[in-house]
Design goal:
single chain, 3-stranded antiparallel sheet, 17 helices, globular, disordered N terminus
Length: 431
C-alpha cells in the first residue's frame, strides 16, 4: 500500500531551494518585455485608474471600480508608488503574483506526490499552460486572486492529511480571505473546503465507512479527531472574513455602514445578469475546450507586423488535461484516493461555481484557476501505475514547445506577422 505523502517527508531545505529557483526563473520569464505595450490595454483601463485614485490624499467621489474588492488595486497602487506611474509600476505586482502562483503549484505537488520531480513538473506545466504567463503581464485582478488561492489550497491539502490540521486550515482561511479581497471568485475554493470538511464530518457523524477502508481513503473515521465545530468556524469563517473586511478599512475607515454598502454594491454587480454582449465573451461549458479566446491587444506595428496578446491557453496542455481529469475522477470513485479526490475538488469546484451565477457575461480568463489546477491532474496520470519517469518529462517538453510556439501571440514584445497569426489561429472561433 502506498503511504500517504506529506510535505515533512521532503527535505525542507531542498524544497525551499527549489521553490526559490522556480520563483526566480518564472519571475524573470514573466518580467521580460512586460512594459510592452507602454499604454493601458484591455481591462487595465479600469484597474490602473482605480489604483491611482487610492494614492490621492483624499479619495475622490465616485470611487472607481467599486464592483470589486480593493486588495489587488491596493497592490497596484503600492507598485505605482514604488516604480512610478509607468507600465512597470502598473504590471509588476502581476509579475510577482504570477511567479508566486507557480511556487504554490509546486507546493501542492509536494503535498500530493511527495516527490520533487512530479512537483516541479506540475509547476512547469502550470506555467506552460500559457494562461498564467499572459495574465501575469497585465494589470488585472485575476492573478492576485489565483496566487493567494493556490497557497491556501496547498495549506488545506497539507492540513487534510494531518491529525491536527488546525494551523494549516487557519492558514488556508487566511489565504482565501486575501484571495476574496482581490476578487470574489476567491470565495469558490473556500466554499470547496467548507463543503469537504462538512461532508466528512457528516459521514463521521453517521459512522459511515468503506468496507475495505485503507489509509489512502479520502474519508476515514479517524480523520481530524480534535477538530471541533468552533475550530471549523474560526478557520473557514472568522479568519477569512476578518482578513477580507480589513482590506476595506483604508477606504472606509471603521465605518460599518460604508463597508456594508460596499459589499452590497459588489453583490449586486456579481449576481446581476449581464445583458450586453462582448466580442470575446464565452459561456462556461466552452472554457475547457478553449473555444473562444480573449484578445487583449492587437496593434499594427509595421507593414506586415503586429503586436498581439491573446489569452488562449496552451492546447497541448489543457486539452490532454481533460482525459487526465476523467482518470482522476475514476480513481476517486473506484479506489477513493485522497490525491485524486483533492485534485477533482479544486478543479471542478471553482469551475462549476460559474454555472450557478446568473451572469451571462463570461470570459475564458475566469477559467484560470481550474486550468492551473489541471496541471496536477496531468502529473497524477503521467506518474500513475508503472509509467516510466521519462514520459512525464517528455510531456513537459511538448508543453514547452506549445508555449514557445504561442509566444508571438502571448507577448507583445515578440511581435508576429500576419502569416504567423493566421497559422496560429487554427479555428475560426479563435479570431
Amino acid at each position: 500500500m502506498r503511504e500517504s505523502p506529506s510535505v515533512p517527508d521532503q527535505s525542507a531545505m531542498r524544497a525551499a531551494i527549489v521553490a526559490v529557483v522556480l520563483f526566480l526563473a518564472t519571475h524573470l520569464a514573466i518580467l521580460a518585455g512586460v512594459t510592452t505595450p507602454d499604454k493601458l490595454y484591455f481591462d487595465e483601463i479600469h484597474y490602473v485608474p482605480a489604483g491611482r485614485q487610492m494614492l490621492e490624499p483624499a479619495t475622490a467621489a465616485p470611487l472607481l471600480n467599486p464592483m470589486h474588492p480593493p486588495l489587488a488595486k491596493q497592490l497596484i497602487a503600492l507598485s505605482i508608488l514604488t516604480f512610478g506611474d509607468v507600465p512597470l509600476g502598473w504590471r509588476y505586482p502581476g509579475v510577482l503574483f504570477g511567479s508566486l502562483a507557480i511556487v504554490a503549484v509546486y507546493l501542492c505537488g509536494l503535498v500530493l506526490f511527495a516527490a520533487q520531480g512530479p512537483a516541479v513538473a506540475a509547476a512547469l506545466l502550470a506555467f506552460f499552460n500559457q494562461m498564467v504567463f499572459v495574465q501575469s503581464r497585465i494589470a488585472m485582478l485575476d492573478i492576485f486572486a489565483l496566487g493567494f488561492s493556490l497557497f491556501a489550497i496547498a495549506s488545506f491539502m497539507h492540513g487534510f492529511r494531518q491529525s491536527r490540521p488546525h494551523l494549516w486550515f487557519a492558514l488556508a482561511g487566511l489565504g482565501f480571505g486575501l484571495s476574496a479581497a482581490c476578487k470574489w471568485s476567491g470565495l469558490f475554493p473556500l466554499a470547496v473546503c467548507i463543503v469537504i470538511v462538512a461532508v466528512i464530518r457528516l459521514m463521521q457523524g453517521w459512522r459511515a465507512q468503506f468496507a475495505d477502508g485503507n489509509a489512502d481513503d479520502w474519508n476515514r473515521p479517524d480523520l481530524w479527531p480534535d477538530f471541533r465545530f468552533w475550530h471549523f468556524a474560526a478557520c473557514f469563517v472568522l479568519v477569512p472574513a476578518s482578513v477580507y473586511l480589513a482590506t476595506f478599512v483604508p477606504l472606509y475607515g471603521l465605518s460599518i455602514p460604508g463597508i456594508l454598502k460596499a459589499q452590497q454594491r459588489i453583490f449586486t454587480d456579481t449576481t446581476t445578469t449581464a445583458i450586453a454582449g462582448h466580442t470575446y465573451m464565452s459561456a462556461w461549458p466552452s472554457w475547457p475546450l478553449l473555444v473562444r479566446p480573449v484578445w487583449y491587444l492587437f496593434d499594427k506595428i509595421g507593414d506586415d507586423r503586429i503586436a498581439a496578446i491573446v489569452l488562449l491557453g496552451n492546447p497541448l496542455v489543457l486539452w490532454p488535461a481533460l482525459p487526465a481529469l476523467a482518470v482522476c475522477l475514476r480513481d476517486w470513485i473506484v479506489t477513493r484516493r485522497t490525491d485524486a479526490f483533492l485534485i477533482q475538488a479544486f478543479y471542478f469546484g471553482p469551475y462549476l461555481a460559474w454555472a450557478l451565477l446568473p451572469r451571462t457575461l463570461g470570459f475564458l480568463y475566469y477559467y484560470l484557476p481550474p486550468a492551473t489546477v489541471a496541471s496536477l491532474a496531468l502529473v497524477y496520470v503521467l506518474r500513475r501505475g508503472n509509467s516510466p519517469r521519462w514520459l512525464l518529462w517528455a510531456f513537459v517538453t511538448i508543453a514547452f514547445a506549445g508555449f514557445a510556439a504561442m509566444l508571438p501571440i502571448s507577448a507583445a514584445l515578440v511581435g508576429t506577422s500576419m502569416g504567423t497569426f493566421v497559422r496560429l489561429m487554427i479555428f475560426e472561433s479563435w479570431i
